[in-house]
Each structure stands twice: as C-alpha cells, then as structure tokens.
Amino acid sequence: MAAVLGAMVSALAGVAAPDGTLPALHDGAYRREAQAAEIGEVAALAAQLFAGAPLKSVARAAERDSAAPLPGDLDGWFAGFPLPAPPPRHTFPDAGFAVFRSAGVHALLDAGPHGGGHGHQDKLSLYLYADDGTAWQPDSGQVPYAHRNLRRHYASTFAHPTFRVDGTEQRPCDAVLDGDTGRCEQAYDGVTATRRVVTDRRYLLDILVLEAATERRLTAQLRPGTDLDVVARGPDRARTVWGDGESAVLTGCHASRPQAEFTVVTHPGPADDPALSRQGVDWSLTGRRAVFVSVYQSAETAPPVRRVSLSERTVHIDLADGTVATHPIGA
Q1: Alpha-helix runs per DSSP H in the chain
Q2: Kind of pairing, strands 91-92 and 314-319?
Q3: Cβ neighbours of residue 28 under 8 Å, at least 6 residues apart?
Q4: What stretch of H or E contains 288?
C-alpha cells in the first residue's frame, strides 16, 4: 500500500509545475475551489506518510484557489516514522504523458491511449507553463456536463494545442509515447503525426511533423491561456510573445517547411471562464508533408533566440551570443 501511495505522490510531484500548479488534463477541472481543497488534503496526508513534505509546493498552489481550512481529522492518520519520499516522476509511457523542463518552461506532451481521464480529441497536444504556474498554453479543462455545447467545445480538437487536418476533428484514437517523441497514426486516415520535444538549458524545442498520403490541409494549433502577441511574421517564420504585465512572459520563435500561413484566430479561454476570449493561431499549409517548429524561452532566459530556420533535415537556431545550435528533424 505504501508503494501504491508513493507512486501517486510521485506522479503529482512530477507533473506539477515548479510552483506546484497541477495542469488540467482531459476532463479535469481547469480551476475549481472544491478541487483545490481536495488537493490540499492529499498533500497534508502525504506529508504525514513521507518525509520532507513531497507535495509542499502543490499544497501552496492549491491554497491560492481555496481558502477552506483542512479538516481536523486529517492529523494522526499515520502514526509511524515517515517513509523516504519517492522521487518525482516525469514520464508515464502507459498513460502517454511526458514532462519536460527547460529555459523557464514547464511542458507536458499528451500522447497516450484514448480514454485516460475521460479522453478528448487532443492527441499530441503540448502544454506550456511557467515556473510560477502561469498557464501559457494549458489544457483548458472541462466545464460541468450540463453545459452541453461548451462541453463539446472543450473536448474538441479545435480547443487544444495539437494538430488538425482539413479543418476537421481528430477521431477518438490512441497515440504512442517513446521517450521524448509522441506518434499518432489513427487520428486521420492516411496521416501520420510525430511530435518531439527537445530540452536545452537555453530553450525548449518543439518539432511537429505531419505526413499525408495525399494532399491535405495540415494545421498546427497554438491555444494560449494568456495574452498572445504576434510581433513579427515572415513568409515561413514568426515570433510571438505570451503573457501580460502581471504574469511571466514566454517568447516563441516559429518556422515551417514548406511555407505555412500563420493566422490569428479567436477561441474561448480556459473552462473556469468560458466567456473570456483568447487569441490563438492556426498555422496551416496545403500539401503532403509539413514541418512546424517552435522554440520557446522564458523572457528572462539568456541568450535569447534570434532566429529559427529549417533545411530539409535540420533545425537551425541562432542565438544572441553568436552561437548556432542544430537539431535533426527526425521524421
């Protein structure tokens, strides 16, 4: 039983952002007071069973959303000597989640079987958080089921930072996680998608490759939970700034091959406030193969990325200190 509880604590600690914020996944609530109160109780129980309060940061984050006092009967449920705390776990191949941390960015790749946590049509979504919990690009969660139209929206492909083909929804399907790469061949007939996340102390690199048997409309989606500004746009590349004056700021450099349209679209905000509109991006081209590359950094990270370009097989990243980093596209 201790091993089972330890695995659960290890999962929460590993998925949480550095400040303890727990990403919403699938039908999980994006932000609700009752959920935050329950998380606080779990953290209090874990602190009695395991040494070092392994969910201390998770408890602090929960306190921001719930002022409910802890029940008095939580104390003393485990009277033994505290056990060694399990280390945080960052990879869950069976469930299809992998966590990445780099350059002030906390990222989570969703590439598992359909149905985990009430599955959505969101294979190969990439979620981005700041070290302080700012939700730059979150899974937007789910509203209560009584809101039927909104419920369908928040489960849809359009609502997630994933890929879309011919403007249609992914079918409910499975994806496979292999280390830093997710692969999906079932979302659309004749289409294979791979998404690889590369960490470097200077940046986080996202490589999404879509390949189709026939010419199709291939789209990568950005779905911010914060303000998004497109500050530069060229024929095959763009630059974005995420956040506002009250939150951490993320910068993104984006490049595609072949040339793709970088179109700003409006979408509802996270499920705790569906009336809030956000600006996102549909990044699209018509063809049989598309490579979409994004390089992300916290605005405080140095040296900043100046330019991203693509050759047939390689990503080239120019940094402000004059160095150039290269990575294979890999698909």
Answers
A1: 2-15, 33-49, 56-63, 148-155
A2: unpaired
A3: 35, 117, 139, 141, 142
A4: strand 277-298
As a whole number of Å, the end-to-end CA separation of the chain is: 43
Question: Angle, to 10 degrees, between the axis of helix 33-49 and the axis of helix 2-15?
Answer: 130
Give percent of the chain with pLDDT exceeding 70: 99
**In the predicted model, is pLDDT for residue 29 greater than 90?**
no
**Is the pLDDT score of 87 beyond 90?**
yes
In this prediction, residue 117 has a pLDDT band, given cuts at 50, 70 and 90, of low
Helix, strand, coil tally for the chain in percent (to 5) = 15, 40, 45
The residues near 47 (Cβ < 8 Å, ≥ 6 apart) are 53, 54, 55, 56, 59
Question: What tokens does 169 get?
Answer: 């929804």
**Taking the alpha carbons of 159, 195, 230, 303 in that order, is the dihedral positive or negative?**
positive
DSSP state of 171: P
Q: What is the pTM (predicted TM-score) of this model?
A: 0.95
